Amino acid sequence: MKNSIRSFFHHSDMFRRTQWRLTATYSGILIAFLAIFIAVVSFLIHTVMTNDQERRIRTLAEQEGQTIENMLEEQSFIGWSSDQNVIFLSEDQLFFYVVDTRGRLMMGDEINKGLRPLLLSTLQPWTPEKNELRYVDIHIPHHQHELKRFRANELKILTAARPVIVDRQLIGILYVGMDATSMFRLLKWSTFILLSLGVLFIAVAIAFSYFMSKRALVPIQDAYNRQRQFVADASHELRTPLSVIYSSVEALKMDASLTSDPFSQKTIERLGDETKRMTKLINNLLTLARTDDAKIQIEKKPFDLRTCAERTLQSLQELANKKNIMLQFHASEQIEFVGDEDKCTQLLYILLDNAIKYTPEGGTVSLSLAQHVIKQRKVVTMSVSDTGIGIAPEHLPHIFDRFYRADKARTRQIGGHGLGLSIAKWIVEAHKGNIHVESEVGKGTTFTITFPNERA
């Protein structure tokens, strides 16, 4: 039961990965548009509000500056007393001050007298060369109860400064300020609300994308399941006629009247080879179809892996001799492994058969088995190396895909359908192992499999 569940999740992983990729794509597009929208709206709100405030204070500073300069020109009087105030503050103005060139207050007013020391200490170091704007932070001490009407410990004040010039002589600096604390608080809250709505809409976008990607995959998954079922049924149905054909070919080989004719003998041998090839293809297809449907169970039992490897090498010795390929074997005297003996034999056969096929005549194919302990866990390592044609780097990520062949023309000549390594990978993963490949074109390929070796 556990193996069936594990196999189900394993074979549905392709659709789950595809679904999550589609979800990421859809939600990424929606989130990108949403982020752009929030950024544009925030920028527009900030720009409109700050530009309006800055335009108003520039106008206010220019009007009051002209008024003060006109008064000083008419009276020809520079030493103005701070209590001789005739300038009226507008309804949204926080203060105005005129400070002479020596840093002394000439005239001024504010909406709260307690602000004057704080404002002057902050403004006097600022000597603008022309009309300038600046946001000034004023910290209100806790003990100044008369300033609690502002309901904030810090005031954000938008200040405009311009020189006061009479008869081309610099008389002083005019500072005009407006309270921008509420505006910044509003900007802060609007940004927070937009971000909160953005997070909410992102969650909705991800959920919507997940739902849409799931619906989009339904017909594809149904078609895939029907195709998989067709492959399983067709493979099963084709095994019987292929067995009959193979038996008939073997019977024809026993007829002396046919084998005495060179043409008939060659034709019969070709029929036998093609029947074997088709039988192998059908068996591989049926194996993969059963693994997809979780119908193949792995039966783990202790067995001698060295003996299993020796039997596999003996079965492939004739194929290696035809190409004058040397088979080398390196292993401990006995390696007790807990796994499925039939599947491990099939794994060895696939890897060694591929190594022999893709190794030129006179080459070498090596099989190594070893057991050791890694992080207090028993591990068995299996390595199959050859001196064959190798695999190009761009093909390495795909060699375990079904029906994938790096060089299709060469593969047709050698024989193969691109299913063996897919089955090999399934066998390794069913034993909770890892398979790794290293290859260099023209020098050879090495497959390394690592299995955990613990008793059930």
Automatic annotation (TrEMBL):
Catalytic reaction list: ATP + protein L-histidine = ADP + protein N-phospho-L-histidine
Keywords, sorted A to Z: ATP-binding, Kinase, Membrane, Nucleotide-binding, Phosphoprotein, Transferase, Transmembrane, Transmembrane helix, Two-component regulatory system
UniProt subcellular location: Cell membrane
Listed SUPFAM superfamilies: ATPase domain of HSP90 chaperone/DNA topoisomerase II/histidine kinase (SSF55874), Homodimeric domain of signal transducing histidine kinase (SSF47384)
Topology in the lipid bilayer: Multi-pass membrane protein
A Gene Ontology BP annotation from the UniProt entry: cellular response to phosphate starvation
Gene3D superfamilies xrefs: 1.10.287.130, Histidine kinase-like ATPase, C-terminal domain (3.30.565.10)
InterPro entries: BphY/WalK/GraS-like (IPR050351), HATPase_C_sf (IPR036890), HATPase_dom (IPR003594), His_kinase_dom (IPR005467), HisK_dim/P_dom (IPR003661), HisK_dim/P_sf (IPR036097), Sig_transdc_His_kin-like_C (IPR004358)
E.C. code: 2.7.13.3
PROSITE patterns: HIS_KIN
Every Histidine kinase domain range: 233-455
Transmembrane segments: 24-48, 192-212
CDD domains linked: HATPase, HisKA
Pfam families: HATPase_c, HisKA
EC category name: transferase
GO MF annotation list: ATP binding; phosphoprotein phosphatase activity; phosphorelay sensor kinase activity
Keyword ATP-binding tagged: yes
GO cellular component terms listed in the entry, alphabetical order: plasma membrane
Name listed for the protein in its UniProt record: histidine kinase
Source species of the chain: Anoxybacillus flavithermus
